Amino acid sequence: MTTPTLETKYVFTITAKIGEVVTVGETGIGVRRIIPIVGGEVKGAISGRVLPLGADFQTIRPNELIDLEAKYAFETDDGATVYVENRGMRFGPVELLRKLKRGEPVDPKLIYFRTVPRFETGHENYRWLMEHIFVASAARHADRVVIDVHQVV
What we know:
Elements: E1 8-18, E2 22-26, E3 31-44, E4 48-60, E5 66-76, E6 81-91, H1 94-101, E7 112-120, E8 134-140, E9 144-152
Antiparallel strand pairs: 1-3, 1-9, 2-3, 3-4, 4-5, 5-6, 6-7, 7-8, 8-9
């Protein structure tokens, strides 16, 4: 017997609009930043809006490797609320990451930005979100983060 092969299928895209960055400062393990999530949309197998609450909590290591942990929620078009915890990392050439920090455009293909979102909801139509593993590829823009969510099948 062999183990099942891992495959993924695209499910939906979360576009999270972000607010002004709050920098806590150097904490001994890196620079801590908090980026408010102020809205956005969900499109694909699920449609809805990102609620204007939550944030992305980041630690920027000395080599510019960024550890990410975002916590927020979205509401589906049919009224379900889905809580999201999304952990991951962003890494790439230092000069490009510094451009991103300044809000300058950078080709997303040049930055490694991957996450593992987990979902919670009490709505029966979306319980399947809690019964599967998801991975995502993301792109940071000056005013938003675009996250393509894939289900591991």
